[in-house]
Amino acid sequence: xxxxxxxDLTDNIIRVKDGGWWCRxxxxxxxxxxxxxxxQNSFFGGNKRPxxxxxxxxxLDTKMIRKWGFQKNPRKHFVASMTDVFGExxxxxxxxxxxxxxxxxxxxxxxxxxxxxxxxxxxxNEWLDSHGLNTLPNNIWVGISIENRQTLEQRxxxxxxxxxxxxxxxxxxxxxxxxxxxxxxxxxxWIICGGESGPNSRPCHIEWIxxxxxxxxxxxxxxxxxxxxxxxxxxxxxxxxxxRKGGDISExxxxxxxxxxxxxxx
Length: 266
Description:
Layout: E1 9-11, E2 14-16, H1 34-39, E3 58-60, H2 62-68, E4 76-79, H3 92-103, E5 109-114, H4 117-131, E6 140-146, H5 149-159, E7 167-171, E8 190-194, E9 204-205, H6 206-218, E10 222-227, E11 232-234, E12 237-238
Helix pairs in contact: 2-3, 3-4, 4-5
C-alpha cells in the first residue's frame, strides 16, 4: 500500500541490483527529490547513491509485472514512483515489457509519470504499432510531472501527442503560478497539484492552486489537490497546518478541498 492519496499501490519495477533505487535529476522540481532522500536511508532499503552521474546496474522486476495479470481486485498502481521508467538509461525493451504486462491486466489501472515525455511518446507508438492498436487501453494512464511554466510548455505538447484515453499532469512540487492553462486542457483529463513537503521546502502559494482548480472546473477537467505543502502561503501570509506536509484536506481552504479522478473512468 501507499500514503500517496491519488493511488492505491506503488509498484517499483526498476531497482538497483544490489538494493535501492536510482534516477537522474533533470529539472528544478528534482532539487529536493523525495525518492533520492529515501534512497539515502538504508533503513528504508536505500543504497545512499545520489541521483546523478552514471547509472548503477539495474534490474527489472519481471515477477511483479507478471503478477498484475493475476490480480483480481481492481487497484490503481503508480508505476515506478522511485524513478522515471522512461529515463534515457532504461532499456527500451523493459518499457515494452511493462506495457505488455499492463495490457494483460485490464482490471488494474496503471498510472505512469515521466519528466521525459519524448521517450514515452516514442515507446508508446512503437508498442501500439507492434500490437496493431491506435490508442492505449483505458487502464493505462500517462502523465507528465511539471513544476513551473517552463516545464509545462516543454512537456505538455509532447504528452498531447500520446494516443491515450487518460492523460494527466502532476503539478507537484508546484513552484510557481502556471498562469493561463486553458489552451492545454483540451488534451488533459486530470491534474494533480500540490506544494513541496519536507525540510526547507520551497514556498507554494495557495492562489496558484486555486487558479489550477478554477480553470479545471471551467473546462470540466478533473482536479486533485494533494497537499498545500509544508511552506504554504495564502493572501500573503504563512498558511499554518497541523499536518507537516499540508496534506490534510480538512485544513485546506474550502474552495480547494477537491480530489477528483478522471471523469471518463470514475
